[in-house]
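User: I'm writing a tutorial on reading structure tokens. Could you give me a worked example: one chain, its sequence, then its tokens, then a sentence or two explaining what the tokens reveal?
Assistant: Sure. Here is the example chain.
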Amino acid sequence: MSEAGVVAAGRQEELLAVKPFEQQRVQFEGWLVFVAILVTLACAYESLAQTFVPAASILSMLHTYGIMEAYPVVYEPGKGIWRLMGWTGSGMMVLMMAYTIRKRLGHKSSLGSMRVWLNFHMLMGIVGPILITFHTTFKFGGLIGTSYWAMLATVMFGVVGRYIYIQIPRGINGAELSMKDIDSIVGAMEKRIESQLEKKGVDQKKILSLLNGVNDAAVHDGNGFVVLLHLIANDLKNRFRTWKLKRAIVRQFGFDSWTAEKTIALVKKKAALVRKKSLLSTTHRMLKYWHVVHIPLAIVMFSIMFIHIIVYFVFSPSAGY
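And here are its predicted structure tokens:
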């Protein structure tokens, strides 16, 4: 093989390696949901225990072993472990902004992958608000209430922004793929699908017409909000379609469960890339509008949060744990 051929082959393998990173993204998001639920349940238990059965609280149990005795079992936002939760949650919200600094340095920086930094940003941006919610002991009056609702709005817009962000095809380092790169990946996937079907010796036209049920490229470029709703609806429908298609090709074409799942995954991946390519201009526009809302909300949230901290120390200088 010529040197140019080796380079081209290496490039194609690099592009096709995007798939494992997509799987890692899904795995991370599943892990993040698990952590969020775990933290919420632990905090909810401690809240209820300190309110109704203080002796059964986690903090009270730790006191029996001489741990965290400086923190009294008291259910108030500025005291006990709830004050610590406020500091920890606020610290996480500040730390998550490190992603913004990393993003300014570009994809070629040696300070780690943008994917890793974005995952860190999401982790801090989800767990931090959970801790702050329980820190308030569900008292949302006054200035801090405004900051809290701004925080919730920022988190919700952050989730939407993440969804829009993953609609843009990206490579291993998080940089956006070119149209040529996307076409190369789609072409390679089509060959893999054909190869998979040839091995099974089935009627390709018949099975491909069936597999086209996961093709969601029918969403057309247009109004950003309408497109976003269509994307979410299609993704939800495809979860059900995948299950039905897997059963259909196992029964009609004699595929084993693992091969059926692998074939459908390839078809879904190809359809998603075709869709992302056709909606690229709309996706960029949506991301631009998203920044217009998300950034001011974050500024309001942080401004009021810092005012709240300053006011707390000015008017409660002797506040204890």
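What the tokens reveal: Residues 1-18 have pLDDT under 50 and may be disordered. The CA atoms of residues 192 and 266 lie 8 Å apart.
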